[in-house]
Amino acid sequence: MRFDHLVLLVRDLDKASVDFKKLGFVVLERDDTSHGSTRFRFVSFDDGAYILLTAFSSDAAMAAHRLGPVLAAGEGWADYSFLVDDAHAAGRMLEAAGMSVAGPVEVANTVAGGHKWALDLLMAGRGAGGDVALPFLVSNRQGVEHRIPGPSTHANGANGVTGVKVVSTDPAGVVDGLVAIGGKRMVDGPADRDDIRVAVSDGWVDVVANDALPLKPEGGFFEAHLSCDRSNLPPDGELLDIDLTHGAALRLVPPGSRDALAERRGSPGS
Fold it and tell me: pTM for this one?
């Protein structure tokens, strides 16, 4: 299990694309032959993960979508996902752990040239009645090389998704959910506050108690860290301009952060 993509909701997709380019990212499009309620741009990384800049095609589409209420509250991070081998099996594991799930459902399209991509999508948080700090899961059915444009070499040095921070009124429950799908609770958590760190492949999810973050009272995903090969980054990384990221807290962190995580011990239970 590893990070697949991070969903960033914006109102103006063209403006968001220009702003991300100002930050040193390459922004790509996927030439789908059919379109639904959303429009996308891609910021893809060497580790296979990507940021999905997302806008709704209309007010009606926004109102009907599971992420519509998030954008109604303002632009920024909306959801995050992991790639798993089998979304159906992951759903069974979550249900066995007492978690709510919806799906999996097949999501598919055909790009110019006739190439098809398809995936299974399982919701565990938003859209499933679960804690909004939980991710959704995807497993590839076919054409992953057509699903994800790139990867790109970014001028700012970003090369992968290292971790995300989420906030919840029930952090222990979120940890249980992450462990149920293959995460490992870390023996030693992060230094700030009483966050609980769950290791996922070579990345992490920090789960924060709701009362520790008044700016996100509804809970959910609120900050992402990207590994970066620039040599001039401070030890705690560089927080990018929040106006250019359209409300999404996005931090570039030194490459050693992945290695440090790999050296730490995890436990399989919560």
Answer: 0.91
